[in-house]
Task: inverse folding
């Protein structure tokens, strides 16, 4: 759904640029509350993973393909504010390095693909999680539904933007019907990818999933007779002392005393945060460097609608069309598989570096602010 230069006129492009800049500014501030020392590196990885999976166009109808937008996935994994930043970093890297999505349309793309998808998806996700039983399966189901709805929501938003500043004389009703129709189908693919990814992380480290906090299980409680004195590190409750230490994340070898004096290991994560990070990076590199060669070559939903309705006649050449990585290939490498794979790997690395840099700076600013208050 990357909007190229020329589809939207200058006044509306400027207006959406202001909206996008405001959303990024607010998100930078909000992300300070979402990021900690464990999730800041994960957020950079989420951006790189979204970049990689966006290269995997999947067929949705005759002559039409779709790809992940990523707003729902980012919001659920690392939080809505950080999610807006993740997708914005991806769009920036795609526009500057790969000539994908117009530079004058960057505000349109951030507003549509980063802001709208993230806000809509996270609102739906939180609603389902609050109303449904607090189980791990609920997180996966809520992720599926949120991602499914977020894609046609982005199509509706694009139609509204086009109604305000579209450069081609096309009936808005036809644009709306075509965009929403094809993006409902694309939403199914988005939902499947999002649910599978969130489910995989929840299965091994639910504490790293922002949207799963407080949902994926109750903290370990150790109970004894109400008459037993509270041991050090415990607080008395009406039904017996509960180990406070068990409420907080424990080291892998942590042991919590039972009331009878025996010791049992506290619940430990299946994977370390570092292992999750490396697994995610390997998946991103595999998608971008290898699997992307087998992606559908059909135009995506917006490209197909733009061609069928004559909108693409107003498209302008991309300012970065001469980039050595334009169109997701490395210039002067004739082998298509090698060229595309190498471009994908470079894109993952660049997005990871920029995204991680942004989130680490945001995290450090939070730490500095906390230190000043302390």
Result:
């Amino acid at each position: 759904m990357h909007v190229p230069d020329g589809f939207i006129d200058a006044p509306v492009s400027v207006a959406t640029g202001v909206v996008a800049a405001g959303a990024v500014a607010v998100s930078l501030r909000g992300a300070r509350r979402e990021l900690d020392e464990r999730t800041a590196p994960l957020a950079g990885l989420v951006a790189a993973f979204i970049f990689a999976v966006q290269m995997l166009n999947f067929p949705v109808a005759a002559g039409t393909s779709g790809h992940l937008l990523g707003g729902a996935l980012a919001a659920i994994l690392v939080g809505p504010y950080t999610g807006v930043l993740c997708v914005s970093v991806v769009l920036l890297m795609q526009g500057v390095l790969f000539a994908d999505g117009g530079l004058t349309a960057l505000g349109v793309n951030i507003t549509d693909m980063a802001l709208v998808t993230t806000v809509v998806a996270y609102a739906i996700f939180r609603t389902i999680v609050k109303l449904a039983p607090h189980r791990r399966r609920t997180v996966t189901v809520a992720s599926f539904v949120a991602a499914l709805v977020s894609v046609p929501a982005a199509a509706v938003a694009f139609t509204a933007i086009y109604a305000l500043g579209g450069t081609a004389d096309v009936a808005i009703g036809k644009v709306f019907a075509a965009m929403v129709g094809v993006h409902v189908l694309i939403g199914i693919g988005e939902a499947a990818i999002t649910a599978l990814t969130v489910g995989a992380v929840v299965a091994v480290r639910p504490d790293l999933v922002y949207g799963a906090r407080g949902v994926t299980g109750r903290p370990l409680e150790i109970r004894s007779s109400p008459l037993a004195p509270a041991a050090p590190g415990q607080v008395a409750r009406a039904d017996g002392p509960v180990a406070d230490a068990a409420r907080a994340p424990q080291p892998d070898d942590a042991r919590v005393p039972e009331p009878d004096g025996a010791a049992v290991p506290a619940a430990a994560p299946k994977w370390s945060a570092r292992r999750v990070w490396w697994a995610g990076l390997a998946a991103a590199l595999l998608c971008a460097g290898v699997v992307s060669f087998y992606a559908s070559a059909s135009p995506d939903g917006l490209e197909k609608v733009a061609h069928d309705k004559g909108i693409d006649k107003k498209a302008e050449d991309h300012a970065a069309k001469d980039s050595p990585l334009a169109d997701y290939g490395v210039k002067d490498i004739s082998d298509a598989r090698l060229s595309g794979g190498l471009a994908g790997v470079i894109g993952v690395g660049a997005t990871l570096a920029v995204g991680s840099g942004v989130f680490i700076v945001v995290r450090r600013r939070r730490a500095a602010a906390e230190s000043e208050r302390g």
